[in-house]
Structures are given as structure tokens and as C-alpha cells.
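Can anyone check this?
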Amino acid sequence: MTVTEKKDKVEDVEMKDDTEKEKEVEKKDPNLLSVEDIREHCKLIRRSVETKETRFVLRVLRALPVTRRKLNPTVLRTVLKTFYTAETDKDTKESLLKFVAPAVELDGSLTPSRGKASATPLYPEVDYYMSLLVLIHLIDQKKGGEAVTCAKQIVAKLEGQNRRTLDLISAKCYFYYMRAHEMVGLLADSRTMLHSRLRTATLRNDFEGQAVLINCLLRNYLHYNLYNQADKLVLKCTFPEQASNNEWARYYYYLGRIKAMQLDYSEAHKHLLQSARKAPQNSAAGFKQHVAKLSVTVDLLLGNIPERQTFLLKEVKVALHPYLQLTQAVKSGDLVRFSDVVKNFADQFTADHTYTLIMRLHHNVVKTAVRTISLAYSKITFADIAQKLLLDSPEDAEFIVAKAIRDGVIEAVLDHDSGTMQSRDTSDVYATREPQIAFNQRIEFCLDLHNHSVKAMRFPPKSYNKELESAEDRREREAQDLELAKEMAEDDDDAY
């Protein structure tokens, strides 16, 4: 055998070894990978507690949607047996294992262990993260009754905790507590607990907890159409500025629903626009669809016609199809077509919580005609308006025109004595306050964006005084400067 043949043979063996290793990596159990991922998450949580840095917990919670898809009885049982090794954690482990279906656990030699820390109790943050995973698994498996029991158990344990490092995880626990009750139709039963925890979170300056609890309560009230109580909650509670963008997006959406129901369409449209801006860009398609549906409805109630591009976006195109037909009916002012659309899609409009608002659009079909009339006539009587709109009396026409003026749909003046409407000349927009208002809104938006960006920046702890000298160093430097000045003075005296 020549030297070159030997080399080729050695290379072939090495290639076979590499392919075998790659196959072993590919064949690694996905359940084992999930357990290792959860272990890494727990390490990040412990690191967050020890360094007082919330960004590590935020990283874990951002990965929660991916983690929940990997959960199954095998993974959960293995994780609980691996982490709850201390004697003091035995009761917690047994209580959580009751909610997990029987399954074959992974081999103990393959799963990672806690090592030297196996005899010490878990950090409360890690403990509640494990409980949260079990609760989420129960919700995903549609086990509503068990999920409610597990959620009550977690919240009862949280009552005795007062750790700022636990705030982000406890906020998630409160949300899924509400979600478990929503699954079984017992949202009203969770309201008392949510109110008491909101008071506690406010006193402790738990900003994330405040934001989540306020949104849970608003969702609770709106589920039962208690719009007055929801409005009172908004007036009496201050939503924390330190809350995450996701919570702000939810809060603005609920505000938009409340204001729309209270006929304050301008404010509702502004809140819904903010909600769409705060929503995640690459996820939360369902939330974006809900915001888009309500935003289109409010836009129509304002007398505006949404741009066609709004209905062609990939994420909302199918969901907004009924609203596109509704918009076309309102734009054309065809009452028969409007009634047909409402009748055909009544069930979907009811599920979207927009049916009540859409029924108000009957008047907006008339308002569209009023706007056309105001642009076409500089002065017209109420009787002529009633004739063109097929109304019963001139008084009805006067009321409809007055409402259109108050909502800012048209610019006109009513003369009750002569029974006429006189349109204002809006040819020179810059003679009005519109440019000033628009410019002011843009400035406020930019300033808010700047303030939120500054608050979101992370700064190293106590780095601002690293280059500042201490009092002793300053005294020593001043003494050296004084001695140097004396020596220079003596040198000057010697020179003379």
C-alpha cells in the first residue's frame, strides 16, 4: 500500500466519524433539548436576581411563546423532578405534579442536575417560573378547571412575596390567572382578587404588575359590557409610563373601545392609532386584526373613508373583507346595500364587538350625503336637505347637520330662524388652526418617542462617578498644588 493510499484511507475514516457524530447530534431527543432550554432560562433568572438586572428575566419571558410550544408531560415531569430536589420544595413539587399527566420521564443520566445546589431551596423567581409553565400547559391543553385551581394556588403563594425581582414573573402569573377564569366563563369571580393585587402593586411601585392588572380589569369589564365601570377605572388609575410596549398597546386598544362606545370618536381613533404603533411588528397578528377592525369602524363613524391600502395588508386582508364591503356601502351612501352587509356579517360583527358601533353607521351614510351637499351648496334650506336625504321632516335634517358639524365632518353655520345651512369657505386651510394643530400633534409624538427611548436605554450601574475623584484625592491634589505654588514662589524670590 502506497503512502497516498494510506492517506486516502485515513481521510475516509475521519469523514465517516464526522458523519456519525452529525447523525448523533441530529438524533438528539427534542424533549431533552427542551429540558436544557428551560434549564438555561432558570440560569438567566438566577443571574437576574443576583445582578438585579431585569433584562435577563425579560429575555426569558420573550422566549415564553416558543417554550410553551415545546411543553409536554414528559418535559414538565423531568423538569420538576430535576429542579425540586431540596426537602423544603417537596410539597411544591407534589402539588405541581398533580396537574401534569403521567408520562415516561427522561433518563436521569442525560438530564442536567443542579449539582452542589441540589440541597438548597429554589429561588422564588425560579419556583414561580416553573409553576407558570405548568399553568400555561394546562391552558394549552384546554383543561379549564385544573388551570383555575393551579392559578389560584400560584396567586395564593404570591400574596406573601414582596420581591422586586419577582415583579415581571408575577405579572405573567396574574395574566394567566385571568385567562384561566376566562376559559371557564368565570371572569367576574377573578375581579375581586385583581382589584386587591392592583392596590398592592401600586403601593409597592410594581409598574409591570400595575400595567398588567389594569389591562386585565379593563378586559374583564369590557367582556361584560360594563363600559361605565371601565371608564371609572381609567379615570382613577394612572397607567405607569414604565410599562412595556405590549401593555401600552393593549391599554390603548381598550381605551379606544371605551371612547368609541361613549361617542368620542376622535379620541378613540387617536388611541387606536397609538395601539397599532405600539403593537409588535412581526407577531400578534390577531391583535392587529382586532385593532384594524375597530379602527376602520371608528374612521367610518368620523365620516372618513379609510384608504384602500388599509384593506390590502397581508396580515389583515381576509379579516377585513366584511369591513371593506361595509366601507363601500357607506362611501356610496346606499342604504339597501348597507343593510345587506350588516345582515350577512352580523355574527362576525358581534364577535368583533363592533356590531353596536356599526349600527350607528346608518346615520353616517346620511352624513356622507350631507358632506357632499355642503361641498356642492354654499347655502341650502333644511327642507331641501330633508328632501335629498329622504328624511321625514326639516327638523331631522337640522339635527343631523348639527351633529355633523360637532363631529367636524363639515364646516358650516346653522341659522335656525331662517332654516338654512351656510357652508364656510375652506379654500384657504392655512387661514385656520388646522396646520397649527397638526404640527403640534407631530411635535408631541416626537417628544413622547424621545422620552420613551431615553427611559428604555440601559446604563451601567454607578458608572456616572467613575471618573470623579474622591474627597481624599481632591485634598491630596490641592495640597500638592499648594506645595508646588510655594516652591515656584521661593524660586522667584531666589531669582531676585
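Reply from J.R.: I decoded it. The CA atoms of residues 312 and 320 lie 9 Å apart.
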